[in-house]
Amino acid sequence: MSERVKVGLALLSTYTIWGSTYLGMNYALQSIPPLHLSAYRFLAASVIMMLFMRWRGASFPTVRELLGGMGVGVILLGVGNGGVVLGLNYHIPTGLTALILASSPIWAAIFGGFWGLWPNRREVIGLIVGFLGVIVLRFDGQIQAAPIGFIFLMLAAMGWSLGTVLIPRVRQSPNAYMASGAQMLGASISLFVAALLTGEQSTQAVTTTSLWAFAYLLIFGSLVGFTAYSYLVPRVRPALAISSAYVNPMVAVLLGTMLNQESVSAYMLYALPLIIGGVLLMSFAKLKKQTVTEAVA
Predict the structure, then answer these.
(1) CA–CA separation, 48 and 43 (whole Å)
(2) Which of 9, 204, 281, 284 would bridge with 126, disulfide CB 3.0–4.6 Å?
(3) 200: buried, middle or exposed (CB in 10 Å: 19+, 13-18, 0-12)?
(4) CB contact set of 174 (below 8 Å; sequence gap of 6+)
(5) Residue 44: CB partners within 8 Å, gap ≥ 6?
(6) Residue among 138, 113, 84 at smallest CA distance from 282
(7) Which structural domain, as residue segments, surrounds residue 83?
(8) What is the number of alpha carbons within 13 Å of residue 144 lying toward its C-beta?
(9) Structural domain count, the chain
(10) What residues contact residue 233 under an 8 Å CB cut-off, 6+ apart?
C-alpha cells in the first residue's frame, strides 16, 4: 500500500470516525451515566494503548512524564469530553453539539495568547467570524431549552483547546502513544472523581445498544481515530491534518439527521458557515504566517 493511500485512509478515518462519535455517545448515554461513560472509555483505552506500546518495545513514561500527561489529560479529555457527554445528556442534538465543538480552534487561538502567541490581524478576523456563529447558535430553540447543556459544551470546547495548547508545553513521554495513554489515564481518574462527588449513579440496566456504542467509542473513537491522527501529523501539512475540524460537524449533522431523526434548524444553517469559515480563515492565516517566517529564515 502506497504512502498516498495510507494518508488518504487516515484522513477518511478522522473525518468519519470523529464525526460519528457524537452519535455514538448519544446512543451510549441511553443507559450509561455520562461521567461514568467517559471514565470507563478512557481507562480501557489507556490500558490497552500503553500495554500494547510496551509490548512493541516502548518504555513506560517516567513519573514526571506520567504526571505531566495525566495533568494535560484532565483538561484536554476530562473537561473536553466530560463536557460533551454532559451536554448531550441534556438532549442537545449531536449535530448541534459537534457544531459548537467546532469552535475549539478559536478558543485555542485565544489561549495561545497567554504564552505570547497572540492572533495576527487575519486570525482576529477569523475569531470574530467564528464567534458570530457561536452567538447565532445561542438563539437556537434547542439551546434555549437547555442552557446548562450549552454551558457544558462551551466548557468542553475551552477544555479541549486549552489542553491542546498545553501539550507541547508540558513534559510528557516522547512516545506520542504513551503520552496519549497517560492523558487518557488522567482523564479517567478525574471523571471518576467527578462522578463520585456529584453522586452520579446508574438507574437502569445497560442496554445492548449502549454496549455496542461504548465498544465503538473505545475501539474506533479512542484507538483507531487517534492512531490515524498521529499517523497524519508528521506526514502532511498542518492545515490538512486539522481539516477534520471542518468536516466533523458536517458528518455529525448528516448522521444525526439520517440515523437519529434530528432536525436542522435555520440557526444551525446560519452558524455552520460562520464557525467553519472563521476556523478556515484562522488556519489559512496561520499557515501563511508560518510560510513567510520559513521563507525569511
Answers:
(1) 9
(2) 281
(3) middle
(4) none
(5) 218
(6) 113
(7) 3-296
(8) 6
(9) 1
(10) 241
User: What are the angstrom distances between the C-alpha of 101 and each of 65, 112, 132, 177, 249?
Assistant: 28, 18, 14, 24, 8
Which residue, chain included where needed, has cell 481515530?
225
Residues in the chain: 297
Where helices occur in the chain by DSSP H, the ranges are: 3-28, 34-55, 63-73, 80-89, 94-101, 104-112, 121-138, 141-144, 147-166, 176-198, 208-216, 225-232, 238-241, 244-259, 266-296
Closest CA to 164 of 79, 228, 42, 59: 79
Closest CA to 184 of 85, 63, 75: 75
